């Protein structure tokens, strides 16, 4: 007997949406998302809150026609509609499925504002496929937990109302309500792992174990509950190893933990940074090649979208963004902040000590990248010091030194980023205003 699907049967999930300022529905035009849209459009509490979003991947020749179909359906249901075009071209090491999914969720994330909810139509059989794929990839508890029913997303929340609903119930609802939906021909191609699983493997499994979608979903829930406990322990350990000032891991307390706890803390680090979770093989190499490397070495380990490096007693995780360079330019009088590189802004801050504001205003201020050999005399210290020695003394990694701007007044070096001000220009005054510099990452 096929279970019945209605708004009443989803009341516990939909209750979470009632306080939302706006509800966004990921609408592909397929049967699952059409049923979700139809159920929501007929829910009295959601009236005037809904926007259906069609993500146009540009991968199918029919995509334009599908967008028109979706627009027509939303008009019939009196629901606002938006088309979002994305570039779903796979990057190196990324499958077409992964590229399309990442592009889709990246686009949707920009639409979910505070107090907004995104609803997507993944169901119990999708959960079964996800868990099996993770199992075949050798995933741990986190992967075997499958998709969560609710999660933070963008500035709001993502919910999967159908995650405990069978595919049969969704299809039955569509037929009973005479819905018209799109069938993507690529769904029948077994070139993709998920399609192969869905089309060739699951029918055989269900012949033997008809309720496997329900039982595997239950196992995923057990894994998720176990993962919560492990994550709580990892966060407690993580707090003793993590340096929140520069988002690094401290190596000395890390290596005092046993191997399993080290792995757990490293994974929590990646989770905290918002990076893709590393494989077991990558974590093993990280421990062997980076954590246990000599303190005076500069080991580098590259993963999917990031690089892990060691400097002294810290681990740094850096993204694979294009290398930044400091641009050389004149800081115009009156500007309180300037963009010095792709992801850095230098800001002028009024203070009771620092560089005389009058002198700043009357000088030609230039911002330059390091050339090498620069020296600086510091307040309360004897002699002039090379920037190389100052950077080493302050424990600043080599790759960060090249992104530290040098500020000159009338061709005299007066400041190194927001780290040091030359003793020749530094003053403390209660009568005359001063300025300091603040380097901001954007």
Task: For the structure shown, list the relevant keywords.
442 residues, alpha+beta, Rossmann fold, Chorismate Mutase Domain, subunit A, 3 domains, 5-stranded antiparallel sheet
Describe the structure.
This protein has 442 residues and is an alpha+beta fold. The protein has 3 domains: 8-219, 3-Layer(aba) Sandwich (Rossmann fold), CATH 3.40.50; 244-319, Chorismate Mutase Domain, subunit A, CATH 1.20.59.20; 329-441, no CATH class. Helix content is 38%, strand content 23%. The protein has 15 helices and 23 strands. It has helices at residues 11-14, 31-41, 63-76, 96-111, 124-136, 141-144, 167-176, 193-208, 212-241, 251-255, 259-273, 280-291, 357-362, 387-394, 398-401, and strands at residues 22-26, 50-56, 80-85, 116-119, 150-153, 156-159, 242-243, 248-250, 300-302, 306-311, 314-319, 329-331, 337-341, 344-351, 353-356, 365-368, 375-377, 384-386, 406-409, 412-416, 420-421, 426-428, 434-441. A 6-stranded mixed beta sheet has the order 3-2-1-4-6-5, sandwiched between helices. Strand 20 and strand 21 (420-421) form a beta hairpin. Helix 2 packs across helix 7 (167-176) and helix 5 packs across helix 9. It is elongated, with a radius of gyration of 28 Å. The two termini are 55 Å apart. The model has no long low-confidence stretch (mean pLDDT 89).
């Amino acid at each position: 007997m096929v279970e019945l699907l209605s708004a009443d049967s989803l009341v516990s999930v939909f209750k979470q949406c009632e306080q939302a300022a706006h509800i966004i529905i990921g609408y592909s035009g397929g049967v699952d998302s059409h049923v979700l849209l139809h159920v929501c459009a007929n829910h009295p509490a959601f009236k005037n809150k809904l926007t259906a979003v069609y993500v146009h991947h540009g991968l199918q020749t029919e995509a334009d026609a599908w967008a028109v179909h979706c627009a027509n359906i939303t008009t019939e249901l009196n629901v606002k509609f938006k088309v979002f075009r994305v570039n779903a071209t796979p990057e190196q090491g990324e499958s077409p499925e992964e590229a399309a999914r990442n592009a889709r969720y990246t686009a949707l994330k920009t639409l979910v504002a505070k107090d907004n909810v995104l609803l997507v139509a993944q169901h119990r059989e999708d959960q079964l496929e996800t868990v099996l794929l993770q199992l075949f990839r050798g995933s741990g508890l986190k992967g075997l937990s499958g998709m969560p029913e609710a999660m933070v997303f963008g500035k709001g929340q993502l919910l999967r109302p159908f995650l405990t609903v069978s595919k049969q119930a969704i299809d039955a609802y569509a037929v009973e309500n005479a819905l018209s939906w799109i069938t993507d021909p690529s769904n029948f191609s077994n070139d993709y792992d998920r399609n192969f699983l869905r089309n060739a493997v699951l029918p055989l499994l269900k012949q033997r174990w008809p309720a496997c979608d329900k039982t595997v979903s239950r196992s995923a829930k057990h894994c998720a509950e176990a993962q919560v406990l492990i994550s709580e322990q990892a966060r407690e350990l993580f707090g003793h190893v993590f340096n929140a000032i520069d988002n690094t891991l401290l190596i000395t307390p890390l290596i005092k933990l046993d191997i399993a706890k080290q792995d757990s803390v490293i994974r929590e680090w990646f989770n905290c940074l918002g990076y893709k979770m590393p494989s077991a093989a990558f974590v093993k190499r990280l421990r062997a090649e980076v954590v246990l490397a000599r303190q005076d070495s500069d080991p580098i380990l590259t993963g999917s979208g990031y690089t892990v490096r060691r400097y002294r007693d810290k681990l740094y995780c850096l993204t694979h963004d294009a290398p930044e360079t400091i641009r050389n330019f004149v800081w115009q009088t009156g500007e309180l902040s300037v963009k010095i590189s792709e992801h850095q802004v230098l800001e002028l801050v009024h203070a009771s000590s620092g560089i005389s504001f009058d002198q700043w205003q009357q000088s030609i201020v230039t911002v330059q990248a390091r050339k090498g050999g620069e020296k600086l005399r510091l307040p309360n210290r004897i002699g002039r010091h090379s920037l190389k020695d100052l950077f080493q003394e302050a424990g600043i990694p080599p790759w960060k030194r090249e992104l530290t701007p040098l500020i000159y007044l009338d061709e005299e070096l007066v400041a190194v980023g927001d780290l040091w001000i030359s003793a020749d220009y530094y003053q403390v005054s209660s009568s005359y205003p001063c300025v300091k510099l603040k380097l901001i990452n954007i």
